[in-house]
Amino acid sequence: MLIKTANEIEVLREGGRRLAAVLREVVVAVRPGVTELELDALAEKLIRAGGDTPAFKNYQPGGANIPFPATLCVSVNDAIVHGIPTHRALEEGDIVGLDIGLAHKGLYTDMARTIMVGEVSTQDRVLVEDTERALSLGISATCSGARMGDVGAAIEAVARPHHYGIVRELGGHGVGHAQHEKPYIPNYGVKGKGSKLMAGMVLALEPMFNIGTEEILLGEDGYTYRTADGSRSAHFEHTIVITESGPEVLTL
Ligand code: MG
């Protein structure tokens, strides 16, 4: 369903608030030495303590051989998105993408942040900051009456001066009744082109920028996407609702 009712938006608002609170606590636990699986266990515990359901756990997208085994996607350094958490301990200088979703009263919200572990290189810090800025500019462009291309153009404009690779195969999406709904939202585009955005649409915007190539590789696990050249990648995501007075971020 493209347009959500006022009641559905109210539930999504509460779900988004809960999701943001969970991720905030997980981010506090990020430090050198913590393992990816420890972060995942914390995320699952916090979501279930609120009476909600992790959205990604046991989700099986088309083409995948196994259901996703975790609550949190943990994508370190050259991993772009959908990393399966492992026993690996985070190290100083890593950048780690944490992507999380939950279902609250049957409705889904989705968000992600890339966290710098201790001191990181200047290049990595700028990549992370630019990707986060691209998300906020993309959100600002997501207004009733605007076009899908306006959103992609706003995101792409941040990447262009830095020659970041913009992942083409993955992007944002509608969300709510399911984890992934229409429409698909590319992280590039032409202003004024594409379908019209309307109040009541609930969307997950998620720019992914690579320091190097835009080319990506899917790992043998069937989930983890990495940059083809091993360069580092950052990813930020919020779930928003378009209101008559502008975009409202639900996952704050
Ligand atoms: Mg998403």
UniProtKB/TrEMBL annotation:
Provide the cofactor list for this protein. Answer: Co(2+); Zn(2+); Mn(2+); Fe(2+)
Give the GO molecular function terms: initiator methionyl aminopeptidase activity; metal ion binding; metalloaminopeptidase activity
Query: Which biological processes are named by the entry's GO terms?
Result: proteolysis
Ranges for domain Peptidase M24 come to: 11-244
Matching entries from InterPro entries are given as: Creatinase/aminopeptidase-like, Pept_M24, Pept_M24_MAP, Pept_M24A_MAP1
Binding residues for a divalent metal cation 2: D110, H173, E206, E237
Q: Does the keyword Nucleotidyltransferase apply?
A: no
Where on this chain does a divalent metal cation 1 bind? D99, D110, E237
What binding details are noted for the cofactor? Binds 2 divalent metal cations per subunit. Has a high-affinity and a low affinity metal-binding site. The true nature of the physiological cofactor is under debate. The enzyme is active with cobalt, zinc, manganese or divalent iron ions. Most likely, methionine aminopeptidases function as mononuclear Fe(2+)-metalloproteases under physiological conditions, and the catalytically relevant metal-binding site has been assigned to the histidine-containing high-affinity site.
NCBIfam families linked to this entry: met_pdase_I (TIGR00500)
Name the family: Belongs to the peptidase M24A family. Methionine aminopeptidase type 1 subfamily.
Report the function annotation for this chain: Removes the N-terminal methionine from nascent proteins. The N-terminal methionine is often cleaved when the second residue in the primary sequence is small and uncharged (Met-Ala-, Cys, Gly, Pro, Ser, Thr, or Val). Requires deformylation of the N(alpha)-formylated initiator methionine before it can be hydrolyzed.
Q: What is this protein called?
A: Methionine aminopeptidase
